Amino acid sequence: MTKSWKDRAEEVIMPLYPQKEICLERGEGCYLYDTNGKEYLDCAAGIAVSALGHGNTEYTKAAIDQLEKFIMCVGSYPTQPKVECAELLVNNSCFDQVFFCNSGAEAVEGCLKLARKWAHHNKSPDCKEIIAFDCSFHGRTYGAASCTYKALKQDYFAPYLPGVKFAKFNDLESVENLISDKTCAVIIEPVQGEGGIRPADKDFIKGLRALCDEHEIIMISDEIQAGMGRLGTLYAHEYFGIEPDLISIAKGMGAGFPIGAFLGKKKYTSAFAAGDHGTTYGGNPLGTRLVYETVKQINDPAFLKNVTETGEYLMDNLEKLKADTNSIEEVRGIGLMIGVDTAYKIGDVLGNLLDEGLIATQAGEKSLRLTPPLIFTKDHADEAVDKIGHVIRKEL
Ligand SMILES: Cc1ncc(COP(=O)(O)O)c(C=O)c1O
After folding, report:
1. Which one of 14, 90, 223, 340 counts the least CB within 10 Å of its CB?
2. C-alpha pair distances (Å), 297 with each of 200, 245, 287
3. CA atoms within 13 A on the CB side of 178
4. Is the pLDDT of residue 396 over 80?
5. 320 alpha carbon to ligand 1 midpoint, in Å?
6. CATH topology of domain 5-55+301-392
């Protein structure tokens, strides 16, 4: 008997992501198809990555055109895609400069290094401490992992970066209690993703901004999951009405191409000098051309309006489902970043949804996470709610 894709995958790929039974083959718009031709509504989007859905025509054209021109050169050469992409990101932000890297974790590393260098020269060489939050997630490289709450449980990876302290999310007093002359930066996800889709309160974020100003602490907004249109604004902090000092972005910005970036105000970015930081692939012509294409599409008022309206519609209908059944405990989220806590084991919910033809993911201990492509429509939302309703009515 021939082996299944799952068995073949598990033989040769490390067991960090338990493999599913189905093998995905292609995508179109908001749908994915497996090797048997079964259709799935994609409510995961590679975890908030496939912002334009699958097979976007302009994106594909740009990729082919750039593949034919050239896809790589040394970082010290300006290229049209890199410069135009940087201008697009900077000119539509409150920031002055950007640095391109290859993933979210690398974007966070860049922010942490920049913050520490700035504080070393502008405050004191002892000013190295970072304040992060409970249930935070910032990535798997050592700096980012050190600011991730799970580090407290994964002691087998220790020693982590020294000087990281965890405050309580949405609790300003707990931040104040950790601030000292040694505090260099605060890093926060405006909507916690992996931690269970937990939006920050607007007042809390505004209070945090004020605290950072008062103590000259660098405010880093990690917008890797919540940024790039997902909350209905290009950058996540715009939704909260504040300006951070540095931000990390990735995921949706490349709509599937692996790329990340961090942006900052010149006051901070000018602390970096040649040789302080770098990357081989960051800012390559192919990646930046695709970010340009993606951000150009996202940063259209009609596109962002669709995210807000479809997100609200989806949340409203999930709330109605909650009222109609006894199986939903809470619906949370902003835009198309939504968490649903059900009365059932999340593994059972996800497995049944997959059978129903819906792909979603888990966030936190028990939340169903919906982060569909940003081109999701009300029809897609109806289909998602129908499928979720069908599953939770089964009393798993
Ligand atoms: C908020 C946040 N920060 C950082 C990361 C790490 O990004 P990457 O997996 O691209 O390294 C993620 C990934 O899920 C994230 O959600």
Report:
1. 14
2. 27, 26, 16
3. 23
4. no
5. 31
6. Aspartate Aminotransferase, domain 1 (3.90.1150)
